[in-house]
Amino acid sequence: MTQKRVCTHPTVVDAVATAAMNSTNDTVAGPTSIFDRYPSTTELVEKFVPTAPLVERWILPLWYIIGLTGNPVSAIVWFGRRMRRNNSSAIYLGSLAVSDVIFLLLHLLYSLNTVWGYQYLSVVLVLGFTVERYTAVCHPFLKEKWCTVRRACFIVVVFVVLSVALSAAQIYIWTYNEEQKSCNHRPVATEGDESSFFNIWTWSVDMVVFAALPLIVLVFNALVLREIIKLSNNGVITRQQAAPAAPTTRPPH
């Protein structure tokens, strides 16, 4: 009998385990007894959240189709010679498209068994692009120095190394169970409950990558928008747009 694999994000599993403990009549039940009763997190989710497989079955293929079609086109456009010539923004946006394609391919392969929910690179790439746009709009005199194609390529490489380093911790947290034919948390990583390495690492990294960084991106975008509105009110943008339309030939005498 084959096992079905469903989405088993750690926070979902923890919530399901809590619900399972609250619903049992065993007064001494704890996380250990619950996971002894359901050795696989897949079985636990299927037992208490039976609708989870439906989400995975219908929503994920839609995202695969959209992402694996649109992102390659976006990468080709942004990495084109005309777009990336003296345009550092094209490096960030093209790298973001490539990052999303790689993530979707790995996600597709892994979701044949279960769903992997960690993706750090896209978040930091969006941050890098946003800071680059902020510099270009709000500090135009620094644009020539900081917003270069060479510097953008260097920053993208740094972001890739940083994302790989953050993701490497998952190698320690997860292990493959030969008997259950599924990936489960490594026992040593979950020892100590709330003070375990798994909880501390997951909460710390997720709060920074998926909460703090998006807020920083939002702040920079707000500053860019405010600067654009200020320039528009002062007529700077209007004059710049109207300049190419000015006649280039001398008027007749």
UniProtKB/TrEMBL annotation:
SUPFAM superfamilies tied to this protein: Family A G protein-coupled receptor-like
Major localisation: membrane
Keywords: Membrane, Transmembrane, Transmembrane helix
GO MF annotation list: G protein-coupled receptor activity
Localisation: Membrane
Sequence ranges assigned to domain G-protein coupled receptors family 1 profile in this UniProt record: 70-253
One GO cellular component term: membrane
PROSITE patterns documented for this protein: G_PROTEIN_RECEP_F1_1, G_PROTEIN_RECEP_F1_2
Segments passing through the bilayer: 58-79, 91-109, 115-131, 152-174, 200-224
Alphabetized InterPro entries for the sequence: GPCR-Ligand_Int (IPR052954), GPCR_Rhodpsn (IPR000276), GPCR_Rhodpsn_7TM (IPR017452)
Protein name: G-protein coupled receptors family 1 profile domain-containing protein
Species, as recorded: Pomacea canaliculata (Golden apple snail)
